[in-house]
Amino acid sequence: MMDGGMMGWMLVWPLFVLVGLALLGYVVFRLVQGGSTSAPAVASSARQILDERFARGEIDEQQYRRMRDELR
d(Cα 55, Cα 53) in Å, to the nearest integer? Predict the structure, then answer.
């Protein structure tokens, strides 16, 4: 009777290991993917703010061009 229970667990443990590895791979993938997409979003947001400041006349063309070149 005890042998039947042990045999069931021997079949289930490899599934737990596979699920754990899949979750670990997913988390690593999301961390790598998230890190690479956040930087361009910040840069485009900064560029948008710079464009708005120039459009409102807060900065002149020379300042605009210098700041725009620094964002690249």
Answer: 5
Average pLDDT of the residues of the chain: 83
Contact (Cβ atoms closer than 8 angstroms) between residue 61 and residue 43: no
How many whole angstroms separate alpha carbon 70 and alpha carbon 53? 16
DSSP letters spanning 27-68: HHHHHHHHHHHHHHHHHHHHHHHHHHHHHHTSS-HHHHHHHH
Torsion of the alpha carbons at 5, 8, 9 and 14, rounded to the nearest 10: 170
Give me the phi and psi of 63, to 5 degrees please: -65, -40
The answer to whether the CB of 50 falls within 8 A of the CB of 67 is: yes
pLDDT number for residue 2: 55
Tell me the whole-structure pTM to 2 decimals: 0.43
